[in-house]
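Researcher: Next entry in the queue.
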Amino acid sequence: MSLGLEESVRAVVRDEMRRVLREELPALLADLRPPDRNIEKSAAPDFLSIEEVARQCHVAPKTVRSWIEHDQLAARKAGRRYLVARADFTAFLATGEKEPQPQVQDQFEKIILRMSKG
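Model: Structure for this entry, 118 residues:
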C-alpha cells in the first residue's frame, strides 16, 4: 500500500470514528447503563419498602422480612431489596396475621440443637 493510500484510509477511518463517537456512542452507552437503583422512589405510589411497612406496622424491618420469608406478605425483589405492592400490603393487613406460625417440630429441633452445642 502506498503512503498516500494509507493516509487516505486512515483519514476515512478517523472521520468515521469521530462521527460514531459523536453521534452514536451516547445512545449506545445509555442502553448499557444499569436500571435506576432507587426504584422505591420511582415507584413510590404503588410500592412500599420493607422499612415503610415496618414503620406502618410498628415492628422492626427484620419482622417484615420474616413475614415475607414465611409467605405471609407478598413482596417483589428489586435488586437486593424487596418491595411490597400497596394492594398486597392492604390484603396482608386484612388477614390480621402478623406473626409467623412456627411448626412445633421446627422449634423442638432448634432447642435440641442449641442444647447439644453448649
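Model: The first strand starts at residue 47 and ends at 49.
Researcher: Noted, moving on.
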